[in-house]
Structures are given as structure tokens and as C-alpha cells.
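[job 4471] stage=fold_predict status=RUNNING
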Amino acid sequence: HVQLVESGGGSVQTEGSLRLSCAVSRYLYSNYCMGWIRQAPGKEREGVAAIGSDGSTSYAESVKGRFTISNDNAKHTLYLQMNSLIPEDTAIYYCALEGFCPPQKWWLRLNYKYWGQGTQVTVS
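[job 4471] inference complete, writing C-alpha cells
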């Protein structure tokens, strides 16, 4: 079955940077959309960035201009470059994948089929 494994989380000071990675295995199709979703304690899950197989991207307003989503198809890896981090970015970050993608406007709220285990990001 499809597996997603995140890495790259950690603790960083305000205005610092982190890059999250998500290694994808056993997904054999060329069409997909993928997202980074975060959840902070006591808060609802929030889609922060998404990318389609054509390279189209979407960002939440709260991270626009600070976060960049990208993927390397040859390495089967999704990335999230996070700059200018603030304490409000503290959360568990999950990567997720869907093979049957709705229109792009829904990607940040999509209930993805496949999920990673999550990686903690703490900003202080």
C-alpha cells in the first residue's frame, strides 16, 4: 500500500527556517495532488499548502509568502520550505496524497486518502 513518511521537523526560533520532506512509496500513478496539513493542540486541522501533478500550487493566507511547496518526482519526495517561522506555526505537520483530485480550489480542504505519520514543528 501507499506509504508517506515525513521528516525534517524540529524546534526553531522565531524567524528561523525549516524544510520538511515527505517520501512517497508505492504510488504508481502520474496524476495526484498532495498537501501539507497541520494541526496545533486545541485547533482544527489546517491545510497550509498543496500541489498538483501539473505543478499548480495553493497556499493558505497564513503562510503565503513564507512557505513554499515543491516536489521532486524523480525522488518521489514532497517538500515544504518554511521561512520566517512564527510561534503560531507550531503544530504537527502531515503530508497527504490523493489520486482523484477535485478542482484546485478544494485542495487545502481536501480529505486526502493517504497520510503520513506527522512531524512536529515547534517555534519559540
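[job 4471] summary: The first strand starts at residue 3 and ends at 7.
[job 4471] exit 0
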